[in-house]
Amino acid sequence: MPRRSMLSAAERNSLLEMPATPNDLIRRYTFDERDLSIIRQHRRPENRLGFAVNLCYMRYPGVILGAEEAPFTPLLRLVAEQIDVPVEAWESYAQRAETRREHLLELQSAFGFTTFTTTHHYRTAIESLDNLAWQTDKGIVLASALVEGLRQRKVLLPTPEVIDRICAEAVTRANRRIYVALTDVLSADHRQRLDALLQRKEGSQKTVLAWLREAPAKPNSRHMRRHIERLQALQAIDLPASMGLLVHQNRLLKLAREGGQMTPADLAKFEGQRRYAALAALVIEATATVTDEIIDLHDRILGKLFNAAKQKHQEQFQRSGKAINDKVRLYGRIGEALLEARKSGADPFAAIESILPWEDFTATVTEAKDLARPADFDFLHHIGDSYTTVRLYAAPFLAVLKLRVAPAAQDLLDAMEVIRDLYDSNARKMPADAPTRFIKPRWKKLVVTGDGPDRRYYELCALSELKNALRSGDIWVQGSRQFKNFDTYLIPAGRFDEMAQTGALPLAVNPDCETYLQERRALLEQQLASANQLATADDLPDALITDSGLKITPLDAVAPDTAQSLIDQTAALLPHIKITELLMEVDAWTGFTRHFTHLKSGDEAKDKTLLLTAILADGINLGLSKMAESSPGMTYAKLSWLQAWHIRDETYSVALAELVNAQLRNPFAAHWGEGNTSSSDGQRFRAGGKAESTGHVNPKYGAEPGRLVYTHISDQYAPFSSKLVNVGVRDSTYVLDGLLYHESDLRIEEHYTDTAGFTDHVFALMHLLGFRFAPRIRDLGETKLFIPKDGPEYDALKPMIGGTLNLQIIRTHWPEILRLATSIKQGTVTASLMLRKLGSYPRQNGLAVALRELGHIERTLFILDWLQSVELRRRVQAGLNKGEARNALARAVFFNRLGEIRDRGFEQQRYRASGLNLVTAAVVLWNTVYLERAASALQEHGQPVDETLLQYLSPLGWEHINLTGDYLWRRSAKLKQGKYRPLRPFAGA
């Protein structure tokens, strides 16, 4: 019998928690007529009350109320009210133990409850978890499913210890099945090649496995070839192609992570089946990771080549600037002379020679041709100068990728085959019949020559188009995670059809296309008519539409002058505190550190101080080595071990949710919002040191490489989601991820972004998934409205109308739109991946166009609302201001290493972002608690506080927090006598 505990103490308690809200109490404990009829058969009031209360407990949470245990007070009141018995009657209930026993037997007989026994239910309970344990080994998920299943079957729950043992055995059974599934398909040769991964690589101190899992370095030909060698080595293991589908992806990833954290010696100690299963999972995951990294390297190499060509073009033009200017001035004088000659009837050639000799004029024409750039002023011809860079890796790159293609890109795939053949045969000249339909007009003038295709430009063009086709999904790669066939990301078509037929689609819109379009069109026409009427009368609030465009009056500051005095007074009272003490205090309130469980055992970290040190090393960007030097008693080895086994994306996510939920429950946070609106924004951090080669360049942020941390913050200032992303990808790609995949109890209804956060695709998906989207759009007057065809004219809105809606294409692709939205909602695929692919699709792609058309409807409705509602503008402005203020706090916290991300591995970079968000969330919660105490202290000292001004306080200040110095983890002596530390003295006190 497995002895490892699956549930923490808090999770065990949560299984038997009583309903927390009045609505839940009413839903679970309202009696029907049959219930009341049976309850009324008992003569005495106390017996009716006792019988009814026991009925409630047996139904939910599914236990028998202890003989000496007092019932949950809200439940007792609700039951007493329903059966018209005074609450005090409980004190007289069951003075005879026999009465209580009789009631329990009667309840089981009348309502069908049965007692859980090891003989009849234990084995069945384990088997009921087989499918779920195949998908996850999270104890609380399994326990919750088990408990819910027992309640539905009216089986009274066993003790939490028994539930824990059932879950542990279910996981053990599932693990055995997984090991068998992954190893039964392995031949002796497979096992030999997997064992070889644990040997040292020739000429290196590293094992082959460690070498295979190294992150790519700089985007150049040499490092690309090295990374291709890794993929070739992984492919040489030649695992069965469908092996990754034999096990649920969650468990496969977990097994790979466990194996990745173990030393070769640890893996070698495992019995054969478990060792080979772990190594196979590692190979499957590494193959997908390295494949995607190679494609990303290719993308970045081409990006560098294009940037270099563009820069060379600009530099040449600048160097030629004086000569070009001289030529323009010279030809201006010649032109004037020719015009004068025509006017007077003089010889034009003599007119030219009056400016300069004919031989010199001929020479200047030749010089002008040399100085002239292409007619379209394109820099693309310079890309050929960098052909060698691509040539050095193109052959192994095309050989190692297993490309598959949609019909639309078959010509491009044929071009890849031609290029492969050229390298294989060492041929120099392109075949005359090489495919050319994929060549865009911009490239055609360089590729197509009188002697046939130019090989350099043909190759560069084909590889550039391959990059675009991979992004859009027209070409996909077998074994990739990010570049799979588009259809495989979505829920299976049969399952979607079943959900649609049973009305089980998890979407916020009517699934009937015609009904949906009629409702949206009616609302759109109503809003258009309203806005047009107001615009005609010049009554749009603080907005004016003229022939030259839209003008909106900027919002005034809404914070009254009296708020600043309260802000200063409360800030002066906040205690000075070290960041270490702050984290310890917040952990004492919330226990967020309990979520950093061991990857393999699921146990909590035994040394909380060591754990907090590792988290702080991420949050302040100090790193483990420097943190060990700054924290007495800590060593790098201890911190590194703890990070490897306890810190990962999911533990950071759940711990963050704990802090966000604590903020949501804090009554003082309600002054800032109800937790149902949010904003998101990207914050760029420069990539320096070893990370410089992994950073991406976005001209918006300058020429230096960097990473973007995209963060969602609630109206209560809680940063509930954070994601490290590529600065070269538009912010809008990641807006939905934070709203859909956070772990907190927030229920966001309305979301705000700046201009970079919106596209028409985002508008469409936001609406389908139940969010109101409200971006602050720069140059709103240039963002056009779309109106229904054959509708009335809206003369006052004409300067803003950009076209008519194509509802037919929405009708045509409606099932595909719903299937896509359902897949995103259910987490089958992330919203960011789908948005990135849809944004890369060619304009003729039906699904992308249909979704964009749906976005036109929602964007038009939003703009019309924006024109008519100053309140909406204020809400958006306030929400975005909170996000910008949070970025300032994050910048202050992330101060080490000059605020640069310097870790080369993407995993470590993600941990930096997650640690930063967790620490800022802790600061927000701590500040909120002490702001409430400061406001109360002002009241107690005779300084009345206007509650309407509390909304202007902010928990984002850090002046009172010491972020630097040695990091000592000593609990403050000031907390010994109470839960909170004292405020600073009042001024003058």
From TrEMBL:
One MF annotation (Gene Ontology) recorded for this entry: DNA binding
Region (Disordered): 676-698
Record-linked Pfam families: DDE_Tnp_Tn3, DUF4158
UniProt keyword list: DNA recombination, DNA-binding, Plasmid, Transposition
Domain Tn3 transposase DDE positions: 581-967
InterPro entries: DUF4158, Tn3-like_transpos, Tn3_Tnp_DDE_dom
Biological processes, Gene Ontology terms: DNA transposition
Domain DUF4158: 6-170
Superkingdom of the organism of origin: Bacteria
UniProt record similarity statement: Belongs to the transposase 7 family.
Record protein name field: ORF989
